[in-house]
Every structure is written in C-alpha cells, then in structure tokens.
C-alpha cells in the first residue's frame, strides 16, 4: 500500500495538537528523519515548537551551517555548539555500545538544559520504525530510542517525548519530507546517524581519527553523490590485523582479520564480531559475495576487500560502505566500478601519511548492519 503524506498529516495533526499543550523543543540532527519531524511539528504547531540543532563535534564538515541555511524558509533553526564537551567526554572510549549510550546521556542532558531554558515540556524527535526495531531487538542502541525501552524521560530529563514518525520507514519519511516542501538536499540526504561520525570511528575515539574520517567522508560523498545508492560513507579503524590460514584456504583468497570489531545481525540478534579483509585478484562481485557468505559463517560481521596499495608507514584503515535498500532493515552492498573505487582510494590515501590502506565493504545486511557501530 502506497504511503499517502496528506492522509498521514491529517491523522497525526490532531494527535500532535492534543499531546503538545505547551512549548516543545524539536531536535534536529541534520538527517532526513529529525528534520522532517521538526518541519512537520512546526507546520502544525507553529511557534510552540523551537527547532534546535546540537553541534556535537561529530558532524560532517560545515554540517550545522548548511542545514540551517537549507531549512531557513521552513523553520527558525537554532544551532547550539557543545562540540568541545562531547569530544572531551567521548575521547578514549572504544566499545560501540558504550559510545552510543554515553552519547545518548550527553545528548539528552543538553536537551534537558534547553527544555528548562525555554520553559518547554516536550521533546519532538525523528525516531522512525527501524530505530526502535533494532534497539528492541538488541542489535544496537539507537540514541533516540527511549520510551520503547521503558526510560522515564520526564523523571530523568524533565520532558515528554513526542515521536510523530515512529511508525514510518525511511522511504515514507522521504515522501513526507518532499510533500512538506523540504529541499531535495534534505529529502534525498544521506542517512546520517544521530551520533554522527562517532559511530564511524571504529574502536577507540581520538581527535586524529575524527578529523581523518571527516575528510574521508567528504571524498566519498563527492564521488558517490551522483549515484543512486541508499547510503554511503567512510569509517576509520586501526589497521592491525592477522592472517587467517584456515579461512583463506576455505575461500581461495588471502583473508586477514582486524583487531577492530563491528556490529552485525545474525539470526535476528546482535553480533559483535571481527572485521575481515580479503586480498585476491577476483573483482567479480558475485564471486566475492559467495566469499563473503563463507567468511561470515565465522565470528565475522563485516567483510571488506582491499582497494589499491598499502602505505607501510600508515596505521589507519579507511573503509568505504555503499548500500542499496528500501527499508534499511535489509540491504545489498553496491557494486561500484573498480576503476571508480581506485580513484576514491587514491584521493583518500593522499589525505594523510597515517592512512595505511583503503577497503570496500562487501557485506549484505544481514549479517552486517549498515553502520559498523
């Protein structure tokens, strides 16, 4: 059944008007979900809604500035810069779930302060169906899933949570955003996790890794923006790895596993396993897919393939991820032309002498999640 944005607004309008009887903060991350939720709420409730974007320090280059400019004719977005606090509090943390939970604590403490500042009673946010399904399933903690976990937001932070998009999936949110008049740059915008680049720094969080993945993200988006992929991005992790003779023999390629771990989903439950790298002359994606399926029968959640040559002086791996999906619950990896990948690799490798190598993720969802953390 096709999603009808007009019918959806007719249904959600009385609910919002009934729920929100005072001022509300609308949290905007810059992604399509939160921006659409804020624009919808502002359209229905007007000045009762105060749209706010928190600059956590983990945004893409000039992200807050760009989003504020793009939505300026639809709502008066305010930007609150707390980047120094977030980076200092998260620096040094390695575990994926610990990062997400610490980010959630900092994020909602900041929103709690804003709620008090504006004498508001509500927080409007862009939680969608995929967020709470993954969190309730124990796959990964989405920072914006609270009520579904039984968290009492009024007791903890002093506000009630309102989630007008909680039953929608990404494709439906895009249709709604288009109908609301959000610019193409928003409704076709790359999905960007609430914790931002934090979850694209695999393993220990450092300022150096943050700046490198920010630069690599800019390169990946420059090359892939014109493609019709559902999501694409860069990740960074330490290059330390070891050769896997048994796995290599089984798949007919040299296989290495990194010390870094990434989140996956196996049998509808969360898996936190190793990242593998395949080195072979085979560039046939269908054959590589079969290799991936064999490798992920081990405690491996993401399989990557080497692109280009090593820099022996480097210490970091940059991973490129591009997927095709309708609902973000399952996904196929994109079959990017190898010459195109090599051009990206060359530009990414030139960013820093500390980049050792570039790899491309060839894992479907499941067994991988789309994000690495």
Proportion of residues in extended strands: 15-25%
Fold-level CATH name of the largest domain: Rossmann fold
How would you sum up the major sheet? 8 strands, mixed
Our count of helices gives: 13
Radius of gyration: 21 Å
Number of strands: 13
* CATH domain class of the largest domain: Alpha Beta
Which sequence of SSEs, written as H and E, runs from N to C?
HEHEHEHHEHHEHHHEEHEEHEEEHE
Question: CATH H level of the largest domain: which superfamily?
Answer: HUPs
Q: Quote the average pLDDT.
A: 92
Globally, the shape reads globular
Structural class: alpha/beta
N→C terminal distance: 33 Å
**Number of separate domains:** 2
Roughly how much helix do the residues carry, as a percent range?
25-40%
Instruction: Give the name of the CATH architecture of the largest domain.
Output: 3-Layer(aba) Sandwich
Which stretches are low in confidence, meaning pLDDT under 50 for 5 or more residues running?
A: 135-145
Function: Catalyzes the synthesis of GMP from XMP.
Keywords: ATP-binding, GMP biosynthesis, Ligase, Nucleotide-binding, Purine biosynthesis
GO molecular function: ATP binding; GMP synthase activity
InterPro entries: GMP_synth_C (IPR001674), GMP_synthase_B (IPR026598), GMPS_ATP_PPase_dom (IPR025777), NAD/GMP_synthase (IPR022310), Rossmann-like_a/b/a_fold (IPR014729)
